[in-house]
Amino acid sequence: MIDSAWRRTFSALDGSGYARRSPASNLTNGAAGGVDLAAGEARYPLPGPVRAELGTAVADLDLLGYGHPTGDLRLRAAFLQHLLAGASTRDSRPPLSAGAGDPDQVLVTAGGKEAAALALRYLLNQHGGHGLLLPKPGWEPYRIWAAGFDVPVMPYSPAAFAADPNLLRTLARGQQRPSVLVLNYPHNPTGVTIDQASLNQLLATASELGMAVLSDEVYRWFGPKPVSAMFAPAYDPRTHLIVDSTSKWLTTAGLRVGFLVGRCDVISNLSAFRGTYASGTSVVDQRLAHQLLSSPAATGWLAEVRLDVDRVRDETVKLLAELGVVVLSHGGLYVWCNRDLGHPGVLQDAPSPAPALLTPGDGFGSPGRVRLCTARAGLEPAEAAAAVFAALRGPDA
């Protein structure tokens, strides 16, 4: 059985564009010197005051031993405070489940990817492997993990679900009902966002149909308003798990600090399981993450980063359209485009810029598409649009 799971996983990797054989294999038409719009993260240098605070926080550590298996208590509490703060951005505070705000509902992991892997495996084990509803295009590891468990995958359009949550009921009708639904808004790679009312409806329908839900919210704070499964009246931490990470909204992919939110007994069981293969998450990384979450200087800087992310992305999208690049959707950190140009425009600047580094849609199950991330400090929208146009036009144009 174990051998079969490994064989299925490696087979899924071999057939996926996500499986990278070299550092450059996820890039398309990139050239040396071209602006890097491929890496799916916000790249903004830490300002001096924030760096100084981080240095002091680490210097205060007097013991570099094993941390708490579930994660540093102060970090778990600060994360929950950050998550629940999203409610204050709404007109009225939404109802929250019993125990919401209890740090024992949070497991700290080594990045969001580990949190997602633990959450999906747990839900499939607890609620059956009759089928997994996954967004397509979407983040490929979910499909690869499902293949290892020999669980059938049923794709859905994240844009269609956001526009009409009733499609969940329609999709589950007349066929083997899936047991687990994965949600990811704002969505990678399309940038599609969702409002809280629509997310509430998806959670309510999933609960009615007996589906467990994994809500992948690593891009939450790059949406128009922060939304979360935890704010949904139907949210049930026994069957609905939330995955998050510092990588995106704290612009610290290198920290590898993730979060998994569920009922206390679920978190306790997952912490015990995690202890069989990992000895906690780095105490240094957790201290740095806590400082970023609790520092007014960091909070102010991150607010400016998010405004810049929106501005550069939206202005780049307008310029791309003028150049004939077909933008299918955009939001959060990403712009999702056709690989082929529509009615190509003409670059006004000379010489032609070096082609941008882009991420092809193959790694998301959608050949013929490309994803770009314009969340870069100092990036000019005109520069980004020109580099994308040069990449899609190709060297022989």
Explain how this protein is built.
Mean pLDDT is 88; it is low at 21-31 and 89-95. The protein has 13 helices and eleven strands. It has helices spanning 2-14, 48-59, 73-84, 112-127, 141-148, 158-163, 167-172, 196-208, 246-249, 264-274, 283-294, 296-322, 381-393, and strands spanning 106-109, 132-135, 153-156, 180-184, 212-216, 240-245, 258-261, 327-331, 334-338, 359-360, 369-373. It is an alpha/beta fold and 397 residues long.
List the uncertain runs. 21-31, 89-95
Number of strands: 11
Give the percentage of residues in beta strands.
Answer: 5-15%
Could you say which structural class the secondary elements and strand pairing correspond to? alpha/beta
Major beta sheet, strand line-up: 1-7-6-5-4-2-3
Order of helices and strands: HHHEHEHEHHEHEEHEHHHEEEEH
- Average pLDDT number: 88
Q: Determine the N-to-C terminus distance.
A: 52 Å
What's the helical proportion of residues? 25-40%
Rg: 21 Å
Shape: globular
Major sheet attributes: 7 strands, mixed
> Helix tally?
13
